[in-house]
Amino acid sequence: MARDALVQEARELLAAMEQALMQIEAEGQDAEAINAVFRAAHTIKGSAGLFAFERIVSFTHIVESVLDRVRNGSQPLDANLLTLLLECSDYIAMLVDAIAARQEEQEPDAERRARLEAALTALLGVVTATPPPPATVAQPQGEPQGKVEVESGESVSSDNWHISLRFSPDVLRSGMDPLSFLRYLGTLGHIVHIVTLPDALPAAAEFDAETCYLGFEIDFASPVDRQTIEGVFEFVRDDSDIRILPPHSKVAEYISLIDGLPEPSGRLGEILVKGGALTESELTRVLAQQAAEPVPAKPLGALLVENDVVPQAVVAAALTKQKQGEEKRAQEQKFIKVEVSKLDALIDLVGELVIAGAGANVVARRQKDVQFEEATQALSSLVEQIRDAALTLRMVPIGEVFQRFPRVVRDISRELGKEIQLVVTGADTELDKSMVEKLSDPLMHIVRNAMDHGIEPTEARTAIGKPAAGTLRLNAFHESGCIVIEVSDDGRGLDRERILRKAIERGLVQPDQQLSDSDVFRLIFEPGFSTAETVTNLSGRGVGMDVVRKNIEALRGEVEVLSRPAQGTTVRIRLPLTLAIIDGFQVMTGEAVFVIPLDLVIECVDVSSHDTRHNILKLRGEPLPFVRLRELFELPEAGEVRESLVVVQYGQQRAGLVVDRLVGEFQAVIKPLGVLFSDMKGISGSTILGDGRVALILDVPHLIQRTARAQAAQSWPRQASALSDR
Amino acid sequence: MPLFATDESGTYRLTGELTIFYAAMLKDELVALLGTAKAPLSLDLSGVEDIDTSGVQLLLMFKREAARRGASVSYSGHSPAVLAVLELLDLAGTLGDPVLIPNAVR
Fold this sequence. Notes:
The structure holds two protein chains of two kinds. Chain A is α+β, with helices and mostly antiparallel strands. In chain A, α3 runs parallel beside α5 (about 110-130). In chain B, β1 and β2 form a beta hairpin. The chains are: A alpha+beta, B alpha/beta. The interface of A and B includes residues 173, 195, 204, 208 and 213 of A.
């Protein structure tokens, strides 16, 4: 759907725009970065114009006018303007969101828009007022004007619509004739001028009689509205390049038109005339001079500017077009855009393939046919490779999430009056695309919290001999089948006593309870828990951290907090690499089959040789808490079995799971549990075995926590009731 | 059917529909004609009953290709259907050759 493509493109461009603005702020003005900002605004406006999203076009237009002045040096780019431009990009993002939500008819925030527009037009006004008009006034009428002000805000004199048509090459084959659209257009008004562009016609050898090569530039006089004109081309709009400019369009809109048209810049003059940016007489003058010029003739573009008949911006746009085209081509070769839903469908299919492959394996083993078994083994190894390849298709660098933060840190540090620098490492660590989107809000909360509560005000820092500027670190890395994301600050650290006091006040813990540091710090993720003494604009309202935990747990991940007084706090998020397919370790208790994510399995131990009192087992001298799945899931006794213990590890914690039988490795396609089971603890999903039976996937992080708590409860039986989760 | 029947001199006649349905076939014949015929070529369009975008493209391509090979092609006897399209697309200057706009059409 074209609208989705527009929204996505606009969002990417806004991200690029923001990045360029941040770069300017960090490294000073740089023509390339300013151009990048301008191009982004310009392209957003152009595409929005195609769809007649007027709100975004009119707003971006003013932004673009200011940017144009920045670009040609008539408007200095100072800190205030940078902030203003960043706010404008935020507002454009809101307008884009409105389009995504199909609410483009409503202004998202009229007041904010008015404020931003006022600030922008104030800048424009100041500059237009400065060049003293007398020189222009003194010129006799009819003579060519003096210097043409390079200003994309000015309108062209043409009273007509301008329509550029580049039909899809396949339009004829689909049974449509461009002529019939033109005839119909003629019934809505008067075609003042039409230019048929045969530029794309190839030589006879390459000429395909059924491909449409012709383009049309039309000047059209009509009282109808834009929608009516667009309606004419409704059937061909999706594949064809159709641009419609209303009467008295801005010069900038013509720039955009030139940018988008496929004809080479050699056709510049003609396109400009037909486009109405120039009148015929202006072009004739230029052509006459060109004929008189001694060889080598200057390029037409240079002549036009020399004669001041075309605003420089227009020519620049036409001339840079070719270069941009080349850049675009180079990028296209490297990446192709694929709809996420298509990838998801592929991964679903691969999941089914994995299950079917497992089924074939089971059959092969039963048949005891060596050749058959070998064949299925070869198949499974290929299926495994396909699975991995398919999953990496969805992997994206976490930099996509991190790239928002320079801006966030900048804005918040200003708001708080703290000097904070951001250090990002591991931005190219990859994770599943579906997680990227869900990770961004939790990270935002954590970062805000760190800046607001973690990092001390400058005076407080200097007083205790810390560097005046606080440091916030974002880090990401892979660790045993997980991605770990850390947000660290070098601030004051969490106040253990205050958290504990508050938790006791709220009845979350008993006053005489013994808690480890990490247990205490985990309390900040409880709903409604805030230790901030003053509620600031950003955080301290006690919402946020519990939402963070919920979001992370919904991704089968875990959050933990490490903190040292006066040295800082690290929030560590651990997420599984993928949500779809895992390598599992299959175990059985009674008749029930369970799957443990293989990445989390450390070793398997024979239980019978160990002393297993109090659900603690001594393994190589270390105590290891464990749980019997039979007891946990209340399965019937199976009589004499030789129990095994699977040691699992998540993060730094280990625990044992006692099972009847170890079955072996197995690729598990994770099927989510239904809503009915959403409250169930200890199970994170289900999967289908090769023989069609259902196996449950154990929620290892939960089980480890549970055994740890049970162990704590045994050591201090008095507090057991407060901590148990039953 | 479009096709063309030859006159004795250098004049060829196009008749019937100059549309997408016959465009591919006609293209081959036109190109073949360029290879064999002696310059200058004249194409009589008086028998053209209908013409669409593909037909216009063909006429443009034919003229260009001839020029590229150093030959020349002129169109004559434009039928009302052809004239209407040339006017719609403002191509009379390019494809009109002897610009003959009969009173009946104007």
